[in-house]
């Protein structure tokens, strides 16, 4: 769990010898002569109960400290052998989750008030729901060759900014995945590669000035909904995309903005 006033937070699944979690925080900028001697406060707590390790990090900025070139970064390295529940909130700052090694995600909740939110999962196991949200910024969700246990949901939401997903899934997932992509002002971009025993359905909803495009192959239909030629299959990905003001790219287009 990471909570920050104004910081970029990067979560990386990586083995660190002798440690399950390693947290590195750095800050740079300029300080006024009358400002606090402790411009940034970082607190850590951890406890283990019933074989569950909980680590909490809070990054608090003193008022009036950085007058320019303000930058605080918090990088968290976590052991990919753990079953992971990831929660990050920032008032201002980018959030990233990068997992290039196989890892099990029981839940992911990333929320920025102002800043981009990006997730890249490769060969991951998803056993719970994922939520990526920002009020002002873009949302990116990348997924490649995942295992999905049961029926899980991914929510991608931006109030002002584009929402992009790039999913490659050619192996059976063991379950089904529902992806909801929503932006009020911005674009929705759907990139989807499926094959074999994985089917997909894409439903689009647009406002008066919105449109949604999907970069897909082996799908039937030019109007929402469009379905893969093998839908329904042993495993399925269902995508519900919605935009009010904006457009989406590339390839197939739905809505008055096309």
Describe the structure in your own words:
The structure is a single chain. The chain has strands at 2-6, 8-13, 21-28, 40-49, 52-61, 71-78, 83-92, 95-99, 104-114, 117-122, 125-126, 130-136, 139-144, 147-148, 150-160, 163-169, 175-185, 188-194, 198-210, 212-215, 219-220, 226-228, 235-246, 252-254. With 258 residues, the protein is mainly β. The strands form 2 sheets. Strands 1, 4, 5, 7, 9, 11, 12, 14, 15, 17, 19, 21, 22 and 23 form a 14-stranded mixed sheet that branches. A 10-stranded mixed sheet has the order 3-6-2-8-10-13-16-18-20-24, with no helix packed on it. The radius of gyration is 20 Å and the shape is globular. The model is unreliable at 248-258 (pLDDT under 50).
Entry keywords:
disordered C terminus; ten-stranded mixed sheet; mainly beta; globular; 14-stranded mixed sheet; 66% strand
Summarize the structure.
This protein has strands spanning 2-6, 8-13, 21-28, 40-49, 52-61, 71-78, 83-92, 95-99, 104-114, 117-122, 125-126, 130-136, 139-144, 147-148, 150-160, 163-169, 175-185, 188-194, 198-210, 212-215, 219-220, 226-228, 235-246, 252-254. It has 258 residues and is mainly beta.
Sheet having the most strands: 14 strands, mixed
The structural class is: mainly beta
Number of strands: 24
Mean pLDDT: 86
The percent range for strand residues is over 45%
Count of discrete alpha- or pi-helical segments spanning 4 or more residues: 0
Distance between the termini: 41 Å
Radius of gyration: 20 Å
Helix content: under 10%
Morphology: globular
Instruction: Write the H/E string, N to C.
Output: EEEEEEEEEEEEEEEEEEEEEEEE
> Ranges with pLDDT <50 over ≥5 residues?
248-258
